[in-house]
Write a structure and sequence with these properties.
The chain is mainly beta. The chain contains 2 helices and 8 strands.
Length: 116
């Protein structure tokens, strides 16, 4: 049996940009992507702490070291610059493997979105 578990989590980062007319996705600072074990084009869930909105989208690389968190396309309607979000990625794995799996969880500085 396979179960879906949290694989990666970037806990509480500020949205730095919302670009409604971009094709779609979320741009994430590459440093945060690396730390959270998230790759380009991976599906993520973005949860907005400020308004409770949840959206699923895919990741594109943001400028390394910039602290960039930019929601694009329709996802941009779910937030405003300055909102605090949690970004999570999930993985399917064998039930027994899932019992001992440890997700990559990152707690960046919430003012700068940079690793501490």
């Amino acid at each position: 049996m396979l179960v879906e578990v949290v694989k990666s989590k970037i806990h509480q980062v500020k949205v730095t940009e919302a670009n409604l007319y971009y094709v779609g996705s979320i741009a994430i600072d590459e440093d945060l992507m690396d730390a959270a074990n998230i790759i380009a084009n991976e599906k993520v869930q973005v949860v907005n702490i400020n308004n409770g909105e949840r959206v699923e989208t895919y990741v594109i690389k943001g400028k390394r070291g910039s602290g960039e968190i930019c929601l694009n396309g329709p996802a941009a309607r779910k937030c405003v610059v300055g909102d605090v979000v949690i970004i999570m990625a999930y993985a399917l794995m064998d039930f027994e493997e899932a019992k001992t799996f440890k997700p990559a969880i990152v707690f960046p500085d919430t003012e700068t979105n940079r690793l501490v």
